[in-house]
Amino acid sequence: MSEFQRFLAKRLAISIVLTLVAVSVIFVVLRLLPGSPFESLVTAGNLSQQQITEIRAMYGLDQPMWRQYLSYLQSILLFQFGYSILRSQPVWGVLAPRLVNTLILLVPALVTTAVLSSLLGMYVGWNRGSKLEKLSIITTTFLRSTPVFITGILFVIVFAYNLELVPAFGMRSISASPEGYVETFASLDFLHHYILPFTVSVLYYSGDFLLLARNGVVEKRGSEFLKLHRAKGLSEMQQLARAGRNSMLPILTYFALRLGMIFQGLILLEVVFGWPGIGRELVLAIQQQDYPLVQAAVFIMALAVIVANLVADVLYAYFDPTVSTSGGGAA
Amino acid sequence: MSLLDITDLTVTYSTDSGTVHAVNDVSFSIDEGVNYGLAGESGSGKSTLAEAVLGLLPSNGSVESGSIEFQGRDLTGLSERERRDVLWEDIAYIPQSAMDSLDPVMSTGAQIRQAIQTHRNVTDDKARSRVRELFEIVGLDPDRIDDYPHEFSGGMRQRVTIAMALALEPDLIIADEPTTGLDVIVQDKIIDKILEIQDRMDSSLLLITHEIGVIAETCDELSILYGGKAMEQGSVDNVLVNPTNPYTMGLKNSFPEIEEGDQDPVSIPGSPPNLSEAPGACVFKDRCPFATEECEASHPDLVDLPNRNHRSACHHVTKAAQMRRDATDPETWGIPDSHDESDRGEVLLETDGLEKYYEQSQSLLEQLRGNDPNYVRAVDGVSLRVRRSEILGIAGESGCGKSTLGETIALLKQPTGGEFVFDGEPYEHYVDGNMREFRRKVQIIFQDPFDSLNPRQTVRQLVGEPLTIHDYRTDERERAIIETLEKVGLTPARKFLDQYPHQLSGGQRQRVAVAKALVLDPDFLICDEPASMLDVSLKVNLLNLLRELADTEDIGIVYISHDLASLVQVSDRLAIMYLGRVIEEGDVESIAAEPKHPYTTSLLAAAPEKDPTVDRDRVLLDGEPPNPVDLPSGCVFAPRCPKAEDACRENEPGLDTVRDGEHRAACYFPDGEIPADDPADDRSGSAYGNPEFSSPASGDSASD
């Protein structure tokens, strides 16, 4: 087994343990919440005691806690998410489309902003003290620190209500009734709805990447190896590329982390733009104590973060040859 | 026509606190095939000059006036694009710090290839084979061209940068302190390599360094810079043998030499000049013992000395012979001659077979199998004794475990075996609740004066902190601080109290670090390469300070360094370490005069000679020290030893294999003795040491 394979196996094992821990925490925390999914129905008097017992038995909620936990573990690790209590349909059927909606909005936005703002960040870091640097830092910091729903509402007011360029709400026109993902997303109408939330999320994420890239390049700018590159006769842009390449690690880490967190959606943004994403769905499910739905959603989110970190670890080894894969310090 | 012509070059930096005049009216020229040296302390403008030639000045630096003509073309007038074409194609550069000057995320081969392909339109394959060729030339394994910089040692990285500089066979190579920060042995090999290659390629070399010895051995001509001014220039033979400028004399005298071990090197007191104004008076006048009113009035012009290639900028050139005589006397420079050997006191620290092993990390599987882990034997059975007012020098290459030894006897690291006695109490006594007492009595001074001081504390806080920690003289805190600052030569002390480290010069910072250690009136001081980052004259100041402390304050000092020359200056006794073991130990005089172990001999031989008329025999050791995890059997030095025979590979010689009074060495075939006809059969005979004492080094050798 090569060093790298061993490193990979170790990281995989750690990831699996982490996933188990996360899954267990979800289970316990949900059970610690007061009330049950049927509380509201009981208080409204719509269910008799006998009906409640029947339903609880149907969902297995009458069994002892450890048995519930075991069957929960067994199913969730097989990606069997069960039935949503309130919606009475398979959890995956509820979550999958919402998740896809979120991802199709946020993944392109994140990639776009990671590439563009990192490049801009590197450029302004290289030309430190320029007007462009100050301007870009102030703008992106402003966008980053303003809550996303404020920026969102502002954009809606300006572009949707005043200029009437784009629709303010939803993913498709109310009249559209597409079947399947292809029909939903491959249409001009979707693009029309897409552009505003996309822009807002690009701007929202831009500040972090810009600052990370800028700081990285600023830090590397005076280093000896760049001086040698310069002495070799590399052009300004080639030197900048080397400086940028050397400050990739923090950007990469942050990108991977963000990518994992995207699975949680941007709840506020989804609310403002009426985007049927996973974040909104999760809030509803928690309010209504829809155990299976919340468990499944949180499981997916945790898994995404863990996988993203794993990917980042592996990419590290590729992007920085000095990163020791054996876990110890460099010899 | 000369290759590089620099005429009246003036370079300034604009900073927040005004203009810094880094280089002032410097002129010199380098002919084809000539090695030219630029010497001077830090802040003398020598690196700035190189950067100006290369066009690598930082953005706040600019060439104010003067010209840099390279093959008849003025480099200062080139556009960015034209300059890029000249760089590397005609002028290549070997940077200062080999450790940081290679791009960490690009393979070494690719970096050289990049240099080639930036200037020549060649295919990847061709460039690759050229890189392999270059690796071979500089003595690196051509199969390693795809390795990354971190996989090479410091010396090998410097070879990579040399290979890079050679890639396009430039006419001029500018080497900026190419060996600073490397061990003597590596430094010697690198210089040898540069000379050998340069001989073959017939290019010119501009060598910038603060080590006069390196220039004396490699260059034909030189300029001595001080405060941005050329103080003296000409052929190396003239300038270094018969300096006519007080600064050159001072610089030469402060460069310690092994042969003159018993003589204190004479340092130049004071610190480099403030460069915030263009020099009106002689830049050296503040530190010059020969300064007169004339020197206040103007900076002297370079004067051609009759009949030789030699120019000096001094108003008193005519009195050069007289000055040369006076300059060797410390009192001329206002340094009191205080060399009275005090008697060495009682034994303060004693170790017997001290060991520090590091366990190597093991995989789970190997742990389950119950395999014994591998150990890195950083310190492997070291027996030492240090008395009061004695300085014990510990020398060795990097990686020989000398720093670990320092940290272990400071109990910053737990010894894993052996005996340790300090001030009559064993190790257990201190671990068992008396650590604070130990920490007060034993102080350590670290290598880097830039990193070992908290940048956000004033000198008062820095020096006062140990007092607070140990609740020592807290009622007269201020006095204790001022006394200590004065003791280390920071006078007037009040001036420094409220300054932050960044406001101090390198030498002053190191003095603050020493003061921090001394403020508790320790009994024992451990110095780990305290001078390696300092300029020669500052280094000499520090060495003299330590010597004085040992003599007057009755403290024992362990001085760890790879610089044998300064160790010889400062120490009473020397211990030479190789791979965690002490392989030779004894009085400084006897080791310097007749080293017994071949390793010591090569260490001594690797130190450059400042007198250009002396030809030094280079003893170039092959290879690098072996892996400390997987040591060869027998003598650990055998694989690199020129004299090794079968006997050496079978049994490890003990430290008592050779002894001559206090002087002991671990070698079957010591230098300086005539070997018998058949040494292998006769190795237990008296010529190779007393058989009673041929126990391993970790034995009871310290008890005699």
From TrEMBL, chain A:
<feature type="transmembrane region" description="Helical">
    <location>
        <begin position="251"/>
        <end position="273"/>
    </location>
</feature>
<dbReference type="InterPro" id="IPR035906">
    <property type="entry name" value="MetI-like_sf"/>
</dbReference>
<feature type="transmembrane region" description="Helical">
    <location>
        <begin position="98"/>
        <end position="126"/>
    </location>
</feature>
<keyword id="KW-0812">Transmembrane</keyword>
<dbReference type="GO" id="GO:0055085">
    <property type="term" value="P:transmembrane transport"/>
</dbReference>
<feature type="transmembrane region" description="Helical">
    <location>
        <begin position="12"/>
        <end position="33"/>
    </location>
</feature>
<feature type="transmembrane region" description="Helical">
    <location>
        <begin position="146"/>
        <end position="163"/>
    </location>
</feature>
<dbReference type="Pfam" id="PF00528">
    <property type="entry name" value="BPD_transp_1"/>
</dbReference>
<keyword id="KW-1133">Transmembrane helix</keyword>
<comment type="similarity">
    <text>Belongs to the binding-protein-dependent transport system permease family.</text>
</comment>
<feature type="transmembrane region" description="Helical">
    <location>
        <begin position="293"/>
        <end position="319"/>
    </location>
</feature>
<dbReference type="InterPro" id="IPR045621">
    <property type="entry name" value="BPD_transp_1_N"/>
</dbReference>
<dbReference type="Pfam" id="PF19300">
    <property type="entry name" value="BPD_transp_1_N"/>
</dbReference>
<keyword id="KW-1003">Cell membrane</keyword>
<protein>
    <submittedName>
        <fullName>Peptide ABC transporter permease</fullName>
    </submittedName>
</protein>
<keyword id="KW-0472">Membrane</keyword>
<dbReference type="InterPro" id="IPR000515">
    <property type="entry name" value="MetI-like"/>
</dbReference>
<dbReference type="GO" id="GO:0005886">
    <property type="term" value="C:plasma membrane"/>
</dbReference>
<feature type="domain" description="ABC transmembrane type-1">
    <location>
        <begin position="99"/>
        <end position="312"/>
    </location>
</feature>
<keyword id="KW-0813">Transport</keyword>
UniProtKB/TrEMBL annotation, chain B:
<dbReference type="InterPro" id="IPR003593">
    <property type="entry name" value="AAA+_ATPase"/>
</dbReference>
<dbReference type="InterPro" id="IPR013563">
    <property type="entry name" value="Oligopep_ABC_C"/>
</dbReference>
<dbReference type="GO" id="GO:0015833">
    <property type="term" value="P:peptide transport"/>
</dbReference>
<dbReference type="InterPro" id="IPR017871">
    <property type="entry name" value="ABC_transporter-like_CS"/>
</dbReference>
<protein>
    <recommendedName>
        <fullName>Nickel import system ATP-binding protein NikD</fullName>
        <ecNumber>7.2.2.11</ecNumber>
    </recommendedName>
</protein>
<dbReference type="Pfam" id="PF08352">
    <property type="entry name" value="oligo_HPY"/>
</dbReference>
<keyword id="KW-0472">Membrane</keyword>
<dbReference type="Pfam" id="PF00005">
    <property type="entry name" value="ABC_tran"/>
</dbReference>
<keyword id="KW-0067">ATP-binding</keyword>
<feature type="domain" description="ABC transporter">
    <location>
        <begin position="4"/>
        <end position="252"/>
    </location>
</feature>
<keyword id="KW-0406">Ion transport</keyword>
<keyword id="KW-1003">Cell membrane</keyword>
<feature type="region of interest" description="Disordered">
    <location>
        <begin position="646"/>
        <end position="704"/>
    </location>
</feature>
<feature type="compositionally biased region" description="Polar residues">
    <location>
        <begin position="692"/>
        <end position="704"/>
    </location>
</feature>
<dbReference type="GO" id="GO:0016887">
    <property type="term" value="F:ATP hydrolysis activity"/>
</dbReference>
<dbReference type="GO" id="GO:0005886">
    <property type="term" value="C:plasma membrane"/>
</dbReference>
<dbReference type="InterPro" id="IPR027417">
    <property type="entry name" value="P-loop_NTPase"/>
</dbReference>
<dbReference type="GO" id="GO:0005524">
    <property type="term" value="F:ATP binding"/>
</dbReference>
<feature type="domain" description="ABC transporter">
    <location>
        <begin position="349"/>
        <end position="604"/>
    </location>
</feature>
<dbReference type="GO" id="GO:0015413">
    <property type="term" value="F:ABC-type nickel transporter activity"/>
</dbReference>
<comment type="subunit">
    <text>The complex is composed of two ATP-binding proteins (NikD and NikE), two transmembrane proteins (NikB and NikC) and a solute-binding protein (NikA).</text>
</comment>
<keyword id="KW-1278">Translocase</keyword>
